[in-house]
């Protein structure tokens, strides 16, 4: 039997009223709302995000004008026009103004979500983005859910069977997944499960909730494959480190069920560092939809951007690029908050400094 001193250590490590959390490693923080320091840290991070977005908007606007061809050629689609028509187009789209003035006008309109009209369809660009963005968001969230539902249980299984055939098999599958490009996986899934077996539709977004989920299953799996491998490797490494900590040994010495030790103490403390990888994964999913959407003929943001680049539709290219950049920055910001909530060792100011 453990002595009195050892019992005190074990009880303290398992959440007794000694100022230590149930996992036994970190001091308990008071259950109070964020203080002034946290608010200042959030405001500082928001200001930094806005600065980055400003710089990205300047780069996006400038690069589209540095691309081969001119805005006038994009407007006329290369057709010969008279000088009067060309001058009318320049005045209508303010192309006769200096480039900094054009950027200021575009940026001011973009702040009100007014991105002008498409050069090709004359449809408001904001309407096109809203329609396509909803599909891309659904696809990214679906793929992200698949990543978490597959990667975390497999990582837990591998971490609890270290240096066994199970661990090696899961690690080998993860390496294979990382090496497989999403477009190649998309084509493979399309051929096997769509064409040969006929289990899933091969194109289109579907109508309604269930039909939409049915149509997006193969694209979401193709998009999630490489990210599953990444989250699996990061989560496994984090859990292996956590399972070697003393408070896990103390929890087992106290006779707690293995399920409680693994899920409540091990997984809880191991997910802190995984939050950052998960946030970056979601951002990567948003940015990587183009090829998968093209493969499955999905009218999402990625496909819209590819089509706009092909047709030299500058307003659409600028708007979609800016929206994707803003979405990635927002996901990164939310990831910082989630990281602090999942890791009791950190304060909000630490994560955002």
Keywords:
mainly alpha, MetI-like fold, 0% strand, globular, disordered N terminus
Task: Kindly describe this structure.
By secondary structure, this protein is mainly α. The protein has a single domain, classed as Orthogonal Bundle (MetI-like fold), CATH 1.10.3720. It is built from 15 helices and no strands. The chain has helices at 4-13, 36-66, 71-76, 83-92, 99-111, 125-159, 165-179, 182-196, 209-243, 246-253, 258-287, 289-295, 301-311, 314-342, 348-352. Helix 2 (36-66) packs antiparallel against helix 14. The protein is globular. It starts with a helix and ends with a helix. 34% of the residues are buried.
SSE layout:
Blueprint: H1 4-13, H2 36-66, H3 71-76, H4 83-92, H5 99-111, H6 125-159, H7 165-179, H8 182-196, H9 209-243, H10 246-253, H11 258-287, H12 289-295, H13 301-311, H14 314-342, H15 348-352
Helix pairs in contact: 2-14, 6-7, 6-9, 6-11, 6-14, 7-9, 8-9, 9-11, 10-11, 11-14, 12-13, 13-14
CATH top level class name:
Mainly Alpha
What proportion of the residues is helical, as a percent range?
over 70%
SSE succession: HHHHHHHHHHHHHHH
- Strand percent estimate: under 5%
Biggest sheet character: none
Tell me the domain tally. 1
